[in-house]
């Protein structure tokens, strides 16, 4: 049986390393492991990731010392042969002895990787990225990132970024901080407690899971007068004490009444206040008080008598300004005024409107 060549052994080691590292992306150690994946980093799995999820996976893979090419592809949205399994017949000219199914494993001095169908190398500047465990390479001179359609040069070597820095241009100049840190003067600083994304020391823009952003702070639940959108507390609206949306107020502040999911100082016509809400009056009333059938005003053509709307006043009463008023005691019936009798009680005679 022929003995394996050095190249065959190298390829076997590379393939084994790729198989071991790929599944780790779904359960990587570190503070922010990112979204779970159903298995290895395949083209289908990566395609399902949002931009934020891809960057979270990149952070986790990077922290675990995974394939730096995968980290770069996830971080910058670069083309990458995620499903590549077989090494090329020959390595690219730029890396004749250092390649695997995804292309070049490293680039010679003065060259940087280019991302296309497979990773290759081309002359150009590099990009400083945080050093994975065990890496001791030096940063390529004139470190910076340039990108154009189909290609994006990134680092061929590693050098540590500043503490808590996710992406940098040099060991002392950070461009993007890790989750829960903000950038100030090229340095990363801790956000307030329970904050995931912030842009300064005192306020939070996006809170950690199970917390809500309220006026720049992270809270477990929204205070009165605010409702949860799932990640933030929003105002219920003027004079509203509790709501589930800006158009559905369920309770009003004191001295205000709830009417049609809004808060008003007094109920409109045809409504009366009851237990903090405006209730509709009976159809028999034009206006009411304390109860739906306790009328205070009547529809056109009717008059109010003893809290009810009638077509004519009862005997001993006369209509005046929409209300039935009692006649004078000397009259049986009257009209116009209380003492303008139209009929008299039994035993009395009517004379000139008087009994």
TrEMBL record:
UniProt-listed SMART domains: FU
Keyword DNA damage attached: no
Signal sequence range: 1-27
Annotated region described as Disordered, given as residue ranges: 126-148
Superkingdom, taxonomy of origin: Eukaryota
CDD domains: FU (cd00064)
Name of this chain's protein: R-spondin Fu-CRD domain-containing protein
Taxonomic source organism: Fonticula alba
Taxonomic lineage of the native organism: Eukaryota, Rotosphaerida, Fonticulaceae, Fonticula
